[in-house]
Design goal:
The structure is a homodimer of 189-residue chains. Helices cover 42% and strands 22% of the residues of chain A. With 189 residues, chain A is of the alpha+beta class. Chains A and B meet through strand 5, helix 4, helix 5 and helix 7 of A and strand 5, helix 4 and helix 5 of B. The structure holds a DNA duplex (30 and 30 nucleotides). Chains A, B: It comes from Polluticaenibacter yanchengensis.
Amino acid sequence: MEKFIEFVLQFGNLNKQQIDLIVRKASVVEFRKDEYYWEAGKIVRYIGFLTDGVIRVFYYNNKGEEITRYFIDENHLILSGNMVDEIYKPSEYLSAITDCKMIIFSKQDWKEILDTVIGWDSIIQKIVTRHHSEKISRRSELISQDGTERYLDFIQKFPTLVNRVPLSFIASYLGMTQSSLSRIRKNIL
Amino acid sequence: MEKFIEFVLQFGNLNKQQIDLIVRKASVVEFRKDEYYWEAGKIVRYIGFLTDGVIRVFYYNNKGEEITRYFIDENHLILSGNMVDEIYKPSEYLSAITDCKMIIFSKQDWKEILDTVIGWDSIIQKIVTRHHSEKISRRSELISQDGTERYLDFIQKFPTLVNRVPLSFIASYLGMTQSSLSRIRKNIL
DNA sequence: ATTGCTTTTTGCCATTTGGCAAATGGTTTT
DNA sequence: AAAACCATTTGCCAAATGGCAAAAAGCAAT
């Protein structure tokens, strides 16, 4: 829980009372490796904040292949589709890569916090904005790089993920087969 | 000029007086094919709205290759880097693919409009937000598609550009060589 | 240590794409 | 019409990646 408070306070100040109120509304959930946090098509009931573990976000393309969009690791807020415009689509699946621990708020409670805690909406707004600008990927850089370059970028950008995420998921994230990634990896050493 | 007013009014209402004020501040510029609208490293002096023509946005990667980030066509606002966070980077070049006509405002005038015309900032804010969400590219879709799929997407998404943009630029935008695109094109027919 | 299960690596070959240069086709200028 | 200048297509071969299956390595449970 401290992780969450600490995270939030980076984006604005809150007094003890406010923090207490938020903490009272929060619950802690754990789920195990390979459990879904949510599945495509289902209604999302929670706002979550991941405190431990790694989650994979993926979808199925028109050939039925599972494509990994990205990974979520510790200290990231997971807002549902209709709260942060279209970032998390209802067509996506979120599944735990490792055992996870998460703080969640029901949508009802979340709304109450928004109504009672002055400054909360501006904090969330800031988090969302930062999230947005992180997600505005530099399309052309990606597309004009070959597999090796994309992998090098990946390990540089997400050094903590490399050893916790199975190679097949990284390969899918990087848009190549796992054999190719295995070979690329070999050539880099 | 009408095009600009029409565009802006989609995002909010303005009265005659306000429109007049804006029109008085605006100037029309034309530039020819292959002229630069701006070059990397230079200070951008204007806010522009493209009424006719197509502009190409590109940069040089670390191998010195010219990479096309995207195209701007009619009815698009071009805000400079420090006004719309980092969308237009000072490391980018904007060059006309066809003869262009553009409405421009000096930064000074633009500020004055922001200060005097009530509702102007909210209109601009909406435009920027829309721009943002258009630019949040679906990274994984792109990267997991092969050349043919990317080209088919392109002609579907920008049907008006296909015949006005040289093949080499489209190829660069799609992250492939122009020979490859030429072959892909041939196979599609 | 052995077994069973999962992940990663490797081999083999097909397909795609890149790199480069020449040929072709189109457009503009004179 | 001819010449000059581009843009596009094509040919040739090399490099990168995909597809598939088997082998190897890693890990967990007994």
